[in-house]
Amino acid sequence: MNTEMESYEKEISDYKMELFDNLVGKAEKVLEIGIGTEAGLKSEDFTFIQALGESIPLEDASVDAVVGTLVLCSVTDVTRTLNEIKRILRPGGIYIFIEHVAAEDGTFLRLVQNVLDPLQQVVADGCHLTRHTGESILEARFNGGADVKKASLSRFAYISSHVYGVAYN
Length: 169
Description:
Layout: H1 2-20, E1 30-33, E2 63-69, H2 78-88, E3 89-100, H3 108-123, H4 133-139, E4 146-152, E5 161-168
Parallel strand pairs: 1-2, 2-3
Antiparallel strand pairs: 3-5, 4-5
């Protein structure tokens, strides 16, 4: 997966830098959900917890920030996962996200996503191509609201619709 994701990571790096600026000097305790590969980070500098997004084993209001990249496409229950994120965030905490989402209804891209979605779930750890994740984040009603922006990535034609942003607890 590292090799396949290298070009993807290059393309989203500007979005990540924009989002991660929200953490600098503001977040002491950060939880990254769905961490995936670690890109050379020293594991001794981190605490790892194996859990489901729908049931995060942390205390209420215990983290300053939650970071998720391409996670909500693969959880079983998006609403429960977002509720868990809200629960563990301290007041004033932030949820930073980058997610691929369903293309607009009626577009050729959406047709392709609909056709590929069952196969994608099998070969990519339950990843759904046709979720409306941006809408789900807005519907989760984070206390301070959410800033959800749209982006298209040229190198990933069948999953090019993305949302990224920050939700405020």
